[in-house]
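U., I forgot to send this yesterday:
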Amino acid sequence: MNIYSNGFLKISFAALAGIMALSAPKAVSGSIAASVDRYYDDLGVYDLKLTSKLGFTDEDIEILSGSDRIERVDTEFVLHPEEEAKEADGEPAIDYVGTYNTLYVWVAGAGERISVTDEYRSLINSAREYIELYVEPKRLEKRRADIKAEREARIEELNRRIEDEVVSLREEAEADQTDFDEDYERAKAGFKEEQESINKAKKAIQESERNAQSLVEGEKDELRKVLDEVYSKSVVTAADLKRAQGISSLVSGSESSYHEKFTDQWAELSELEIKLHDQETALDEEKEKHDKENAARLKQAEDLEKELNEEILALQKEGEVDTGRWSMEDRSRLDGYSQCVSIMDITDRILTPTGILIYVLSLITETAAVFGMIRRNKYNIEEGLRQGLDEARTKAHFVKVSTAASALGSLIGMAIGLIVIPVAASYAYADQFVIEGIVLDPKPLWGAVGAAVMVLTALVSSNVSYNRQITK
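Result:
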């Protein structure tokens, strides 16, 4: 019987299809999971990300790091160093000085497990439970007490600032205003006295002008008398003319002298009055400027007092500190994780049962192919036996062919299911699963057991088929 007969190929293809369908789903999901896990491990990705509305302190980090369940705790993590992009989705805005928004936790032993497996998730959930039950409650209570103490200290500091800064600023402004007002009033009184002196000098000049005018009028009367006397004579002598000219010159000189004197005095007083007015105007402008500056200082004190009181009121209204709970996230929010979990879920729920079904059908097909091969060769086998062929050797040859066909198909099916299909799938979904390098995790035991059963089925079915179909 030809080893490459139609029956041999049917048996081989049945075994190939069954083993490939049985081993490929587990190999694909395992290889993708291992590839994604290596990608995370190469980046040093955290296992848990903790966030808190109250922030984390150095003491929180120290306590978490001290647990044998925690390998490492850090305050920063850069998912893609080459892009300088910090993985900070959903981080709360923290107003507490000296705290950290987020903590990144690496769980002890997690690096030795593949991220998307139940074993890894069980370890992470155990660490999460430990933090939630034994670390978080005590740390939140301590944080509440610390924040309450910080709030009370802040209120005390604000009250002290009101007493020190606001009161001091207001007292300085008021004292400065009082001193300036006193100086201003003294200066205004001085200006008033000077103005009164100038007014007195004006009256004195006016009195002097009236007196001088009387003297000039007297001299003019004397001059008129002399002129009348001279002009009344029938004969005017040179002496008379000289006398008249002398009196006329005296009157003219006196009048010019008085005019010049009083003009200078009025000019001097006018200059003094202008100077006094300018000084008074400058003083008034200085007062106006000072009043504005002092009003600004008082407004500054008022605004500062209002600001501090508002902050005190806000702190007093806050009441009890709302600690909330720590928010914990694992790798499930990272790129590729959910897709990988999804493909593993599909594998467990759909592909694996489908593969088992195909495998069972392949076993049936293989058995049918073995029976069919005996049936097609039954006449030749019986004719050979009648002509003296050794029955044991004929049966052994048939069993070997069936078993070899099943073994060959199983080996090829394992190679395709455990290597070719996982590599092709990993490359096809590399971008979706953030895979940069293929890591094979074919789960060979699953395929090996299936192959053993497949070969054993061929062995048993060939014996049974031969015994039932060949005439003894």
